[in-house]
Amino acid sequence: MRPRHWIKNGFVLVGVLFGHGWTDAKLVIHAALLFAAFCLVSSAVYALNDVMDREADRRHPRKRGRPVAAGEVSPKNALAFALVLALAGLFLAERVSFPALGFAVAYVALNAGYSAGLREIAILDVFIIAAGFMIRILAGTVGLGIAPSQWLLLCGVMVTVFLGFAKRRAELGAARARGGATLAESGEHIAARSALANYTPALLDRMIWLSASGTLVTYALYTVDNVTVLTHGTDKLVYTVPFVLYGLFRYLYVLYRRGGGLDPAVEVLRDPHLLAAVTGWLATVLMLIAG
């Protein structure tokens, strides 16, 4: 089920945070249910992926310890477990609202397509990952009856695309370190995603810097937008921009100097600088908009 990845489902709480919904008990309960729903459906997707990737995982130095690849759980049982998780998650989403259920269904369908072969298409693979995060944001806004900020949606697209390309850059480096430098020429899947054959370090570097710049610009514009100022009753959100800037730079440092970036959720929790940037940003945002 990979519970350490559930932190990604925190995107469904964006609506409650920026929509000032924390004083509405019913809304908070619905947001919590929606968070649980996406934890369940995302875990269902992970179980499905483990079944479909079991042969490749067995040749991977880290992934070969996963239950299906290691032979601890049969593919049949893993698929049955994935179905139970998905149905439970969809049930919880339906308890919140019909639009929330629609977004949860869309998330499952999107990831099923990703696992079935769309992940083999370079660039599209990253955009599908980003779409999964955007579905979470829309579920936590539209699914809860909260109108999302257009600038915030744009920022969400940029940051998720940034993390996606950074992950591919880390995977490419790891594949080459394991002797996969000829991946693009030979077409062999050396314990790596076949989509990596269509990426080069230089191409990924350009995409990473472009999306990182877009993340910073869209977030900064969100903080000074007139609608944002009127909604939150403060023009001081611009002071949270340094946290975002530091977080982006620190993530790039982790990616390029420490060989990290394979798992964004783990990196945020493991690196004290990233954790401090996220915590500082969240605390400052709460202080400003609550005040």
Radius of gyration: 20 Å
CATH topology of the largest domain: Tetracycline Repressor, domain 2
The average pLDDT value, as a whole number, equals 89
Number of strands: 0
The CATH class label of the largest domain is: Mainly Alpha
CA-to-CA gap between the ends?
Answer: 38 Å
Sheet bearing the most strands, described?
none
CATH A-level architecture of the largest domain: Orthogonal Bundle
Tell me the count of domains: 2
Relative helix content: 55-70%
How many helix segments? 13
Question: Strand pairing plus helix content: what structural class?
Answer: mainly alpha
Order of helices and strands: HHHHHHHHHHHHH
Oligomeric state of shown chains = single chain
Q: Which segments are poorly predicted (pLDDT under 50) over 5 or more consecutive residues? A: 180-192
Shape: globular
Beta-strand fraction estimate: under 5%
CATH superfamily of the largest domain: UbiA prenyltransferase
